[in-house]
C-alpha cells in the first residue's frame, strides 16, 4: 500500500481562509486574549479550578451571552451538569478553526484542550512523511483526553482540522484539575481514552481488510454525520492522506461514485446525493467508527 506524502499546515499559514473570515467580520484570532481576559486585564485566578475572582464572575453574568455561550454545540460541554459547567466555563475561550490547522502536534506540548462546536477533525499517526487517520472527531467529543492522562501534556497524535469550524478551548491544566477533583470529568476523560483505543484498533483492521471503495464510502458517511451536511469541503489529496492510499485511487473511486449517482464532485468539494447508496458500499467499520456521542452522553 502506498502512503501519501504529507505537508502539514501550521496555524497562521492558512492566510487565505483567515482573510476571508476577516472580510466577513467573523475572524477571531486563536492566540488573542479572550473577551473576559480583555475585560479583566488578566486571566481569572482560581483555587482548585474554582474561580475566586468575583468581578470576573459578575462580568460573565452581567454581559449578554451569545447563543453559542448559552448552549455550546459541543455535546460534551452541553451535557455537563450545572456545577461543573459553572467551574469550567470561565476558563473557556472561543476560537475559529481553519482547514488544515494543526491543533496538536505529536510529540509536542498540548497546552489546550479543544471542544469543537463544528467542523471535522482528524487524529493522525504520522512518521516522517507518512501518516494515516486513526480516528475522526467532531462536536461529539474533545481533544485530546490522552494529554490529561499523562504526567506531561505531550500529544501522542497529530490533531488536524479537515474543514473550518469553531471551538472552545480550555487550558490543559484546568481540565487536569477537574479530572482530579470530579469523578464525572474523570469518567469522561477515561471513556474518551477507551473510545480512542477502540478507534485505533478498528482503523488498523479497516486498513488491512477493506477495499478503497469500502473505506472511502465509510469515511464520507462518517464525515457527513459529523458535519451534519451532505457537502464535505475536502480535497481528494486530504482524503487520500487520511486513508493512507494514493490520491489517484481516491479520484478514480469518486468518479465511479459520481457516475453511479451517489455524489457530485467539484474542486475541494464533495456533495453526497445518495447516502443510502454509499451505506451499501461502506465497510462494516462504519458503525464502529461512527461516533462516541452515545457512550459519552450516558455518563
Ligand atoms: Zn473498514
Feature tags:
single chain, 299 residues, alpha+beta, Jelly Rolls, Arc Repressor Mutant, subunit A, 4-stranded antiparallel β-sheet, 3-stranded antiparallel β-sheet, 15 helices, globular, disordered N terminus, disordered C terminus, binds zinc ion
CATH class of the largest domain: Mainly Beta
Tally the beta strands: 12
The CATH homology group name of the largest domain: Jelly Rolls
Q: What structural class do you assign from the helix and strand content?
A: alpha+beta
Rg measurement, Å: 20 Å
Provide the β-strand percentage band: 15-25%
Named CATH architecture of the largest domain: Sandwich
Indicate the CATH topology of the largest domain: Jelly Rolls
- Portion of residues within helices: 40-55%
How far is the N terminus from the C terminus? 40 Å
Mean pLDDT: 77
Low-confidence runs: 1-62, 292-299
Major pleated sheet:
4 strands, antiparallel
Sequence of strands across the biggest β-sheet: 4-8-6-7
Number of helical segments? 15
Coarse shape: globular
* Structural domain count: 2
**How do the helices and strands follow one another from N- to C-terminus?**
HHEEHHHHEEEEEHEEHHHEHHEEHHH
Ions and ligands? zinc ion
Structure report:
With 299 residues, this protein is of the alpha+beta class. It has 2 domains: 15-203, Sandwich (Jelly Rolls), CATH 2.60.120; 211-283, Winged helix-like DNA-binding domain superfamily/Winged helix DNA-binding domain (Arc Repressor Mutant, subunit A), CATH 1.10.10. It contains 15 helices and 12 strands. It has helices at residues 15-23, 35-40, 54-62, 67-70, 75-78, 82-88, 145-149, 172-181, 183-209, 212-227, 236-243, 247-259, 275-281, 285-288, 293-297; strands spanning 46-47, 50-51, 93-97, 102-104, 112-116, 121-127, 130-137, 158-161, 165-171, 231-232, 263-266, 269-272. The protein has a 4-stranded antiparallel β-sheet. A hairpin with a 2-residue loop joins β1 and β2. α10 (212-227) crosses α13. The protein is globular and about 55 Å long. Mean pLDDT is 77; it is low at 1-62 and 292-299. The structure holds zinc ion (ZN). Residues 206, 210, 214-215, 218, 283, 285 line the site of zinc ion.
Amino acid at each position: 500500500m502506498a502512503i501519501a506524502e504529507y505537508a502539514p499546515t501550521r496555524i497562521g499559514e492558512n492566510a487565505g481562509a483567515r482573510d476571508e473570515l476577516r472580510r466577513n467580520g467573523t475572524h477571531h484570532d486563536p492566540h488573542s486574549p479572550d473577551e473576559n481576559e480583555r475585560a479583566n486585564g488578566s486571566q481569572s485566578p482560581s483555587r482548585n479550578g474554582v474561580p475566586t475572582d468575583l468581578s470576573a464572575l459578575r462580568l460573565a453574568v452581567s454581559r449578554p451571552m451569545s447563543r453559542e455561550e448559552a448552549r455550546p454545540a459541543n455535546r460534551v460541554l452541553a451535557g455537563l451538569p450545572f456545577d461543573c459547567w459553572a467551574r469550567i466555563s470561565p476558563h473557556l475561550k472561543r476560537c475559529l478553526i481553519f482547514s488544515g490547522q494543526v491543533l496538536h502536534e505529536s510529540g509536542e506540548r498540548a497546552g489546550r484542550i479543544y471542544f469543537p462546536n463544528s467542523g471535522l477533525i482528524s487524529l493522525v499517526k504520522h512518521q516522517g512523511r507518512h501518516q494515516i487517520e486513526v480516528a475522526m472527531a467532531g462536536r461529539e467529543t474533545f481533544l485530546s483526553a490522552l494529554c490529561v492522562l499523562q504526567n506531561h501534556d505531550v500529544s501522542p497524535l497529530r490533531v488536524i482540522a479537515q474543514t473550518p469550524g469553531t471551538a472552545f478551548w480550555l487550558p490543559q491544566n484546568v481540565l487536569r484539575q477537574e479530572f482530579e477533583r470530579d469523578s464525572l470529568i474523570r469518567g469522561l476523560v477515561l471513556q474518551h481514552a477507551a473510545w480512542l483505543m477502540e478507534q485505533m484498533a478498528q482503523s488498523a483492521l479497516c486498513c488491512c481488510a477493506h477495499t478503497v471503495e469500502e473505506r472511502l464510502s465509510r469515511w464520507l458517511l462518517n464525515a457527513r454525520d459529523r458535519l451534519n451536511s451532505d457537502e464535505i469541503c475536502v480535497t481528494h489529496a486530504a482524503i487520500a492522506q487520511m486513508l493512507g492510499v494514493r490520491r489517484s485511487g481516491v479520484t478514480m473511486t469518486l468518479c465511479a461514485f459520481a457516475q453511479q449517482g451517489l455524489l457530485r464532485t467539484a474542486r475541494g468539494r464533495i456533495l453526497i446525493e445518495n447516502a443510502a447508496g454509499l451505506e451499501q458500499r461502506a465497510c462494516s467499520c462504519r458503525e464502529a467508527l461512527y461516533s462516541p456521542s452515545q457512550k459519552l452522553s450516558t455518563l
